[in-house]
Amino acid sequence: MSLFSLLSVSASGMAAQRTRAALLVENLANAETTRTPEGGPYRRKDAVFMSQPADSPFASVFRAELGELGTGVAVAEVVEDTRPPERRYLPGHPDADADGYVAFPNVNPAEDMVDLMSATRGYQANVAAMSAVKDMIHKTIELLR
């Protein structure tokens, strides 16, 4: 595996963690949203990751010279929570049903904050890996001078 394909692997991880973080922030922002344009409360969203071959601008050259490339990560799909919404008794709420219950999203802010911290740390780990590869490339260039 070449150093440049390692950069592609880390870049794919950063893109996937960025998407995951955006979904988690959306969940947190809509934790109390009881009415959406689609109707009903907001539905929590999660990113599903899958592995994929890391691609780089020089992938065909690397494949010819070095064989197999590294495996990166991508967001395969974004899934919505299908569980029934949480019902709270709030008879004065504008979205209350005939019995006085309001449907709220199944968003646990504490759980999503922990997941957001995990996504941030995953992103930071990929940045550190890219930085290490960049330093290795720089040292290699220095040695060849």
Number of domains: 1
- Run of helices and strands: HEHEEEH
Which percent band covers the strand fraction? Answer: 15-25%
Distance between the termini: 23 Å
Average per-residue pLDDT, rounded, comes to 89
Largest sheet: 2 strands, antiparallel
Q: How is this structure best described in words?
A:
By secondary structure, the protein is of the alpha+beta class. It has one domain. 49% of the residues lie in helices and 19% in strands. The protein contains 3 helices and 4 strands; from the N terminus they run H-E-H-E-E-E-H. The protein has helices spanning 3-29, 59-66, 109-144; strands at 45-53, 71-80, 86-89, 101-104. A two-stranded antiparallel ribbon has the order 1-2. It is elongated, with a radius of gyration of 22 Å.
Q: What characteristics describe this protein?
A:
single chain; 145 residues; alpha+beta; two-stranded antiparallel sheet; two-stranded antiparallel ribbon; 49% helix; 19% strand; elongated
Short description:
The protein has helices at 3-29, 59-66, 109-144; strands at 45-53, 71-80, 86-89, 101-104.
Topology of this protein?
Elements: H1 3-29, E1 45-53, H2 59-66, E2 71-80, E3 86-89, E4 101-104, H3 109-144
Helix pairs in contact: 1-3
